[in-house]
Design brief:
The chain has four helices and five strands. By secondary structure, it is an alpha+beta fold.
Length: 136
């Protein structure tokens, strides 16, 4: 067996649900999706490195009491998810604009936090980026 045959894909599609865990349907009647970069991608690796570097700078600045505020935590999570989201499907908008133009704003909106949680959970699962994955 050649291990290179087991490499994961760089991206995967997440089918998003509403807050009641029902499929989130777009204007065209199809489920809203996000295409995301996975843990094996350069985009994900850069985003995680940036996140770690920001933490280390905060630690150096604040010392051992470097806990993030809730606002900083939301921003950190949003930054990571924004960097790891290639696009949203074109069947919905955010404030009248195409959703793919508002990725950061969507993830920074705490009232839409259930979307970011779904994307983060999907990205964290290596199996979602395999060729056999059903991309849920």
């Amino acid at each position: 067996m050649d291990l290179l045959d087991l490499e994961v894909d760089e991206t995967s599609t997440v089918e998003l649900d509403d807050v009641f865990e029902q499929p989130l349907m777009g204007d065209d009647g199809k489920q809203i999706t996000a295409v995301v970069y996975g843990p094996g991608s350069k985009q994900y690796q850069r985003a995680k490195t940036s996140q770690s570097n920001r933490y280390l700078r905060r630690l150096a600045k604040k010392g051992s009491n470097a806990e993030a505020t809730s606002e900083e935590r939301i921003a950190e999570d949003a930054n990571l998810l924004t960097a790891c989201t290639l696009s949203f499907s074109s069947n919905f908008t955010y404030g009248g604009k195409p959703a793919s133009e508002c990725i950061a704003e969507i993830y920074r909106n705490p009232k839409l936090g259930y979307l970011g949680e779904q994307v983060a959970k999907h990205i964290a699962e290596w199996s979602n980026f395999t060729k056999e994955s059903t991309n849920s």
